[in-house]
Amino acid sequence: MTTLVLTVVGDDRSGLVAAVAGVVERHGGNWERSQLAELSGAFAGIIEVTIAPERADDLRGALAALEGLLKVTVHAGAEEAASGEEARPLTIDVIGNDHPGIVADVSAALRTHGVSIDHLTTRTTEAAMYGGRLFEATVVARVPASVDLETLTAELERLAAEIQVDVTLGS
Description:
The chain is an alpha+beta fold. Helices cover 27% and strands 46% of the residues. It comes from Microbacterium arthrosphaerae.
């Protein structure tokens, strides 16, 4: 089977998921995993599809026909690379007063230690009691076995104090 990764974006309206799912199904594809969301009136997502190699080009063409309803970009999925090194799961929760740069700072610290982000969810909410906006993030990541968790934890705690957020690590 061939794996395709679809990115979709368009103005939010009823029937967008059904339109993509219908094309995938009619062309023999199997919808494996996805993350889809409405953000500020736009609908966006990423979808992993498997399909017989000989049918992949037909599916690509059919998805292009959705232009006008959704912009769909098709990427070839990659086989998971074997780095030879075991990785440990890590969940990081971040919460604090919202300000620019939180995601950039946290992701840069993780990159420095070779940590790979598998999933990132963020949101801002009104913090009525504090008179501003509250930023919350959850990072699900993989930490290479060669990385010292105490060093990584210390770096994230130092960063949290510097950018004035709370960071909680879990496995």
